[in-house]
Design a protein that fits this description.
This protein is an alpha/beta fold. 36% of the residues lie in helices and 27% in strands. The strands form two sheets. Strands 6-7-8-3-9-10 form a six-stranded mixed sheet, sandwiched between helices. Strands 2-1-4-5 form a four-stranded antiparallel sheet, with helices on one face. Helix 3 (100-110) packs parallel to helix 6 (149-161), helix 4 packs across helix 6 (149-161) and helix 6 runs parallel beside helix 7. It is globular, with a radius of gyration of 18 Å.
Length: 250
């Protein structure tokens, strides 16, 4: 079952045609990786899925993006609800300059939730799901900026999880991390997909091969092909995909 169905999606930044006729299904409770050279449209695409591109004045979008069967670009669609259901983790860890506890509880408080016992439960559960609780349980009220880069990124994942999303979008979440922290995030994604649908942009083909169930290859705004990761890496249907994966591209 697909969490997203994308049909004939086109996106322009002013006169620049950044995404061209994208057709794609994103399966629920799987990890889908988006690969391709810089500027090919993969980060733009995942921002379509929670309407982050709405924040850019010159963007124009045509086509259909269905989330659980509903068109998220329909005039009456609730964007705030969408961004709660479809959370996002960015390339560079961006914890708020407040305590570890307050980072995770922030979104709930914005929604008007103030009961301490409920906040305590959600904070602990979210940190456990992000594989961080055991490392920070004795310093929940310390400033989050004192955490290592890998811990900060897992905190950002916990902050996202706290709002009970259905989908987690990740835009190169390990590119600023060392190999050990990267490995922890990758292990975490494998665990999280039992509860969440995960879409990740990565420049690392090795990472895509390790962690994803499906891989999509973008080039110059086109989706060249998408399929099970093993097929894309070992039996690609398009020579451009093969050339990119084998390093012969360009």
């Amino acid at each position: 079952m697909n969490k997203f169905d994308v049909t004939d999606l086109n996106l322009w930044y002013g006169d620049f045609h950044a995404l061209k006729g994208i057709q794609m299904g994103i399966e629920a409770n799987k990890v889908s990786a988006f690969i391709g050279p810089s500027g090919c449209g993969k980060s733009t695409f995942i921002r379509v899925l929670n309407r982050m591109n709405d924040l850019i004045d010159v963007v124009k979008i045509k086509g259909k993006v269905l989330f659980e069967g509903e068109d998220i670009y329909a005039p009456n669609y609730d964007v705030v609800t969408l961004r709660t259901k479809v959370g996002m983790v960015f390339q560079k860890p961006n914890p708020f300059p407040m305590s570890i506890y307050d980072n995770v509880a922030y979104g709930l408080r914005v929604q008007g939730i103030k009961k301490k016992n409920l906040l305590d439960d959600v904070v602990e559960d979210s940190l456990k799901k992000a594989a961080l609780f055991n490392e920070v349980k004795d310093r929940l009220h310390d400033n989050a900026l004192g955490l290592s880069g890998g811990q900060q990124q897992r905190l950002c994942i916990a902050r996202c999880i706290a709002l009970s999303p259905q989908v987690i979008l990740m835009d190169e979440p390990t590119s600023a991390l060392d190999p050990i922290a990267t490995s922890k995030i990758e292990e975490l994604m494998e665990e999280l997909k039992s509860e969440y649908t995960i879409a990740i942009v990565t420049h690392s083909m090795q990472q895509a091969a390790r962690i994803s169930d499906y891989t999509a290859f973008f080039l110059l705004g086109d989706l060249i092909e998408m399929g099970p990761t093993q097929d894309i890496f070992y039996k690609p249907q398009d020579k451009r995909t093969e050339d990119y994966i084998t390093g012969r591209f360009g």
